[in-house]
Design goal:
Shape of chain D: globular
Bound molecules: sodium ion
Oligomer: heterohexamer
Order of helices and strands of chain D: HHHHHHHHHHHHHHHHHHHH
Number of helices of chain A: 2
Radius of gyration of chain D: 21 Å
Largest interface: D-F, 41 and 39 residues
Structural class of chain A: mainly alpha
Number of strands of chain D: 0
Distance between the termini of chain D: 49 Å
Largest sheet of chain D: none
Helix content of chain A: over 70%
Number of strands of chain A: 0
Number of helices of chain D: 20
Low-confidence stretches of chain A: 1-15
Largest sheet of chain A: none
Helix content of chain D: over 70%
Distance between the termini of chain A: 72 Å
Strand content of chain A: under 5%
Low-confidence stretches of chain D: none
Amino acid sequence: MYLSLVPLTASLQIAPLSQDLSRGLFVTWAGMAVVFSVLVVLTLMMLALGRIFRPGPDEE
Amino acid sequence: MYLSLVPLTASLQIAPLSQDLSRGLFVTWAGMAVVFSVLVVLTLMMLALGRIFRPGPDEE
Amino acid sequence: MYLSLVPLTASLQIAPLSQDLSRGLFVTWAGMAVVFSVLVVLTLMMLALGRIFRPGPDEE
Amino acid sequence: MPWEELLSGLLHFTPGQGLMMLIGGVLIYLAINKGAEPVLLLPIGLGIILANIPLSGMHEEGGIFWLLKKAGLETEVFPLFIFIGIGAMIDFGSLLERPYTVLLGAAAQFGIFGTMLLAIVVGFPLNEAAAIGIIGSADGPTSIYVASILAPSRLGAVAVAAYSYMALVPIIQPPIMRLLTTKAERKIRMPTATTSVSRTTRIMFPIVAVVVTGLLVPKATPLIGMLMFGNLLRESGVVTRLAHTAENELVNIVTILLGITVGSTMTAATFLRADTILIFVLGIVAFSLGTATGVVFGKVMCYLSGRRVNPLIGAAGISAFPMSARVVQKVGLQADPHNHLLMHAVGANTAGQIASVVAGGALLALMAGIL
Amino acid sequence: MPWEELLSGLLHFTPGQGLMMLIGGVLIYLAINKGAEPVLLLPIGLGIILANIPLSGMHEEGGIFWLLKKAGLETEVFPLFIFIGIGAMIDFGSLLERPYTVLLGAAAQFGIFGTMLLAIVVGFPLNEAAAIGIIGSADGPTSIYVASILAPSRLGAVAVAAYSYMALVPIIQPPIMRLLTTKAERKIRMPTATTSVSRTTRIMFPIVAVVVTGLLVPKATPLIGMLMFGNLLRESGVVTRLAHTAENELVNIVTILLGITVGSTMTAATFLRADTILIFVLGIVAFSLGTATGVVFGKVMCYLSGRRVNPLIGAAGISAFPMSARVVQKVGLQADPHNHLLMHAVGANTAGQIASVVAGGALLALMAGIL
Amino acid sequence: MPWEELLSGLLHFTPGQGLMMLIGGVLIYLAINKGAEPVLLLPIGLGIILANIPLSGMHEEGGIFWLLKKAGLETEVFPLFIFIGIGAMIDFGSLLERPYTVLLGAAAQFGIFGTMLLAIVVGFPLNEAAAIGIIGSADGPTSIYVASILAPSRLGAVAVAAYSYMALVPIIQPPIMRLLTTKAERKIRMPTATTSVSRTTRIMFPIVAVVVTGLLVPKATPLIGMLMFGNLLRESGVVTRLAHTAENELVNIVTILLGITVGSTMTAATFLRADTILIFVLGIVAFSLGTATGVVFGKVMCYLSGRRVNPLIGAAGISAFPMSARVVQKVGLQADPHNHLLMHAVGANTAGQIASVVAGGALLALMAGIL
Ligand code: NA
Ligand code: NA
Ligand code: NA
């Protein structure tokens, strides 16, 4: 059981993937996810602000 | 003699006057005295300056 | 030999010259030498710059 | 897990921090929409919002708020540098033409001490009571200077109260002024000054003020020294480029930093205490008490001078420069549309500025002796 | 012997230091003759020359460069203060009129992370790889802020790369933009905005941006906080003297010091390593990758919107404010002389500014969790 | 008793402090009424007054003067930042058109070393003698920089002497100039420059000056570096906003603080020593000696050049920028009303500025080797 798992795990990891690279990949997807999440929330807030605070007739 | 002084002293102090409040009262009278003293001296100096250094004919 | 050198050295040093004054004299000649050396080099550099980068016809 | 680290901000967000952000938002609203001392309250408002974002690290050692607080507030550099600029802005001419108005500035400082007493009665420890009292100086940098020495944890509340009530002076003062004076008193006209002040007197004044105040109240020396340094730059007339920089770039740069730094001290933990509300209540008391004692002292001067002093100008003694002088002018005009009290009020007003500094120094010295 | 002490400078001069001086000279040349970001590259250039004079003592404890580095870079005061000024300069109106452009700013940040991965692959340790990746933020203060936390010894190379490539944006971006788009796509016209933005929205935006970004990415709070502080000073309209000082004197004074300080970190010992060249190569990759992902994301939006979005504007998402927006305008005009993309590109451009800060904060937070 | 605490200021006031205040007052008087370098002497004057108020706490750890001294003088930040501004103000064009005038600047520096020797002879220890000699640099920031390293307790006297005598240059120099020259020599006309200087040369000069001076006199690098940094900002022409801020707001803010800080070091205890008078006497010697050696070297150049150099311009070599150049012009016009020496004198004058810095650096290096 244990023995059979090792090659499986190993095959899932691209062989020469260093620890740093796997961490880097994690940082990449997490980082991009964060960037998109934050900016999507910001977009929604901006849309909401635009709806709530429409420009007055004298503001153009 | 000694015994008779204690209640006298005590009666001079308003009974529920906390230590902080009595200190505060001291700071208040001392503080206001300082403020008035300093500003009275300043006034006198200003009056003296005004006398000594009168504006010239071209200064109005 | 050794003995004869001492009075010679001593005679070269002006007798009442304190250690501070002799150091001061050293600092003076060294300092002035440095000032002149640096500024002579700077002058040469300035002359060279003036030769190499002549003003264009529109610069006067 | 790093992922948790990223969401940890939201997870650590407390209702208290939300409430503080709301308070910051209200200050920004007041600053922008009500014109309430925007130069300070706007940066303070955003500072509060930033300070209540969890896990930003800005308050930790090395963080920007930790640094600004340490370098600008704990050293007192911010209020002192602002005083150089204020000194370069203030024209003490009105005061020098009417030296007696100095006493009105002195009287109005009872707002500081009376409020301190009240704060002791309601249970504040002595140092905090004194810091609360200083709101009555009606002067921002003095309040910040004194409060950050005596009770740093109360600095935010004291500073916000001081600046807010300075903006509210046109609402706080008039009823008290009318209550304590008769219409006949308010109608008293005061002559325009006949004596003018020589340039030499104007130059000598800041120097004399520094020496007199410094020798009598050493602890007031930094404040009065920087204020009068700025004024000397101004009045000397020979260093206009320095005076101009002092009252513009220097004061602007420091104000930008001071505002956000004061705001940054107002975290939920330090600010959201039941007694913070008490501080704001006592702050109004301080302004009212100062106004009242100023006006009452004005009445005394009115009586002693044979009704040649309009008691209203006593209200300008609290400083709140230059708003309270304008309030005096306005209330005076309401009683008599031809009664122009402005220049007299400005005299009391600038006197109040000096008196506030003296009172602050006295407070620090007396407290240092007691605590 | 003192005399030797005087000549010791020359005796200790190494070829490496001479080479560094040459590099400093090249930067000064580029700044003056090619207009390459002179505000930073000129001071950096002279800073490099000064830093490589042997025995000047300027880097030793108490020396001026030691002090400026400690007080301005290690505390992050310099980049943060500059962000106050940049915030006071930026008009987020174009972004607020076109909120969707925000996503283009997000996409272009892949330049940061992709380059980081590449830097890991070529052998840089994780912290240095992240610092190299941040060149892709195409934003000077963000690069300096992040690099001086993650890899101070690489700060000089990262900063010089960031500023140099910002100046090279008009050369780096167009070929990539043309390669990834068809002429038909480049010809897509975008309507001028019909909605205008109220003053209240403009005022609320910096506050909302601070709260949202701060709560979601606490480590980005200092950067976004100072940026939006400056913007609030600007948009509030009630503290024009503060806003004016922030975007002029404050930013100028700090820039003078920042430039020479960054330059001073570039001694021969820290800079002259074989892998420094790699950093500059990776820096170009970062800008190119960011441009590419921005444009590709623009193509996705183009497709999803039924060809109502010109994919070129995605290139402006890398920030490099405001150069990349102008590049978009120019490439657009080459495809269709009547196609004015500028305002849309400026929206993506300012979005890229915010996205860079968010990415920088995310990078710092994730690295803090890992390292 | 707290009450005593309040009066304690007066009780601790010493006659010495009173005398110091008088000295401060005299400096303010000279600054305002005689126009004697008011930008420095006015703040120094008030600084002296403030520094001699007893018990103000401003000199104690944490006090504002302690802080300014520690942050601005001990770090040398104040003089160095002022040098950035001075560099941005100086036009080295006159010097570049007449490179030979450099040598006059070099010769006049003998005022520094000769005075140092004299100071040793009258009994000053070596470090103090060197600090006294530096008065002969006739340059404020250089004097402050060198004196605060070699003899901090003498800083006040040295700085006040340097600035005072700079203001007295029109009185000190002419008799010496006339004594050492014949009327025929003073009448020598010098041609207006025929060669003009290219922009490239102007830009290269600050860089070359930094490298040459730095490599030959490493200890002069901070001073020459900041001076030439400012000059490069100016001459580059591409960073006008930085150059403008450097020569205005930056220099003004630092000058405000420098003046009052230098003044604050002049307490009765450090200043009221019998030998302080000696410092002021030696200071006049320094200016005179510098003038004399400058003029004598001018005579040598006059002889060697076949009377094509007017020896008067040697007097401008002491720097005292720009007063001594004007003095040369005036004395020249007295001998021949059509003889305009100004531009030649300005060349020697700016050369003197550089030579002063080199001499200061050499002094520091040689002293470091000896002490
Ligand atoms: Na007041
Ligand atoms: Na970016
Ligand atoms: Na000189």
